[in-house]
Write a structure and sequence with these properties.
Number of helices: 19
Strand order of the largest sheet: 3-2-10-11
Distance between the termini: 48 Å
Oligomer: single chain
Number of strands: 12
Length: 637
Amino acid sequence: MKKILRNIGLMGGVLVTFLSCSNFEEVNVDPTAANADQVQIEYFINSSIGGAQQDPNIAERVFVLYWDDAGRMTRVGTLSEGSSNDDWTSQYYNNYVSSWLRNINAGIKIADEQLEAGKARPYTANLKQVARIWRAYMMSEMSDNFGPIPVNGFQGSNPEYSDLKEVYYYMLQELAEATTALDLSVGNADNSLKKLDPAYGYDYVKWKKYGNSLRMRLAMRLSEVDAAKAKQEFEAAVADLYIKDASDNFAVQEVAGYNDYTGVMTREWWDHEISATLNNLMIGLGGVPSANMLSADKLSYIKPANYMGLKFENHFTSMTNDPSAGFFFDGLHNTMDPRAYDLYAIPGDFNNPQFNTYPSWTNGAKTTKRTLVDADNKVVKEIDAAYSWNAYVGGNWGSKGVKNNIYAYTGTLPRLADKYRNSSNKRIFFASWESYFLIAEAAVRGWSVPMSGQSAYEQGIAASFAYNNVSGQLSTYLTSQDYNRVGTSVSWGHTAEPPATVVMTYKDGYTNATGTYNMKYPVNNIYKNGTVKNDLLTKIITQKFIAQTPWLPLETWSDHRRLGLPFFENPAIETPLTDMPALTSGNYMTNSVKFYGQRLKYPSNFGSNIPGGYQQAVGKLGGPDSVFTPLWWAKQQ
């Protein structure tokens, strides 16, 4: 891999030189440059995939600080609270413009010219189709973040910007044409070419499967605004080859160090703790006792199924519609989605080989004892969070947060397993479970698909369980009618709605007095006006969200923008959020598309450097250049 990375660095020099010239003849032949006959499309594909993998600097700002937060895979406090950072956005946008999309477009141009001149190799035509498939992904990522982009852009001249409908139609057409044009009988010249494709080693069958699966994803994105087009494209894609098992997943190996292939979640100062959204989805879901998943030394920490925890009304926010708000859970939940313990390490479980101790320069991950204090900073309560399981909403906790030395501290929270933090894994861009959940949703919509909705749904769960090493719990899980904290169960045949409330026991955290608490299942006003919590689509998107963790937060964000599913709790507003004025003390128990970020604003230098293009893009956005302007395919109110 190190040798490959060195070669990529050399190719980078070739690409920079090539792209800075308007004519091939201007490129001097030397060790770091090449002429038109020497430059090959595979260099451009490799460079574009590598760049989009995101080095730690870009990944920290985009994958973690934007997508993880907006997709509710961890708590950061950016788009989930209506804020963004122009510097982060500019770096990301400029990499698209100057590198990732420009490189893949240049590669396609090279292939076209070589094919026209009769100088192509036997597999050049196939590499062109691979490049078109990858370009469609790149365009989808960019447009799903910002909105209108050019369909013919980043090729050396200022392009026309297209509205999202045109962008999506273009991407879907590209995928249809490219997957059809791939010649699966063509072989590659040697292993040196295969090494330049970090995803599939130029296995054209797998690229065809990915192209069709990506087409399914993008078609489903249109389900709420252009159902006929969505149905047509989806049915055509699913009738062909698509990603069905783990061996076909689009996944790129991460490597240690600091380069494009270094892990996207390796920056040590981010905790990557479990989010309140995911926690509420997992608690009680699936009927699998935690005792079945945990070692004997942890069994004494498991609490009864109807236990809510310790109530600290003066230190934990209640100004949110998070059903777990106001409580510290002083133990482990009686039943839990079994994937939780593979994804996250329990606080204090230092013997767990997957316990992540970042940041390495402090002992914060191993500090489980914290205090609650009063207004004079005197200790009211000391709590040991070892072998506890909590997740807290973001937002502004006001004076309660100032007095609370537990809720935001590394060692007190379940944190992402080390295998996702240490650059030893493969970053997943598309996995088989997503194919199955897309098919299940299509079946619910009445589209023509190759299996029943239930079969697809259960195969998606099975694929996710296999990935998380918990397949032994699958049969119990699939038949469970137990509700999670937001009122959704697993069993396909169980669509009965939960009661409005459920009686739980708790302890007063200050006095240890016991009591009962009527926990309310939250009302998700965005989806079917809050009347439904346990229909088939809610089940599908719930399972899809869990399965996509931790690799695909952009998709969980997009699903929520498209459908309002799964339930996203509001950030706390003990003090008003200046970046989210629509959320107030009078409406925080309701949901609205105005209560979370919908997109990234275009970078400020776009408007100053290309004012005409900026005005064109914003004019086709359908609203102001704001994080709260929904994209064309998303819920509008």
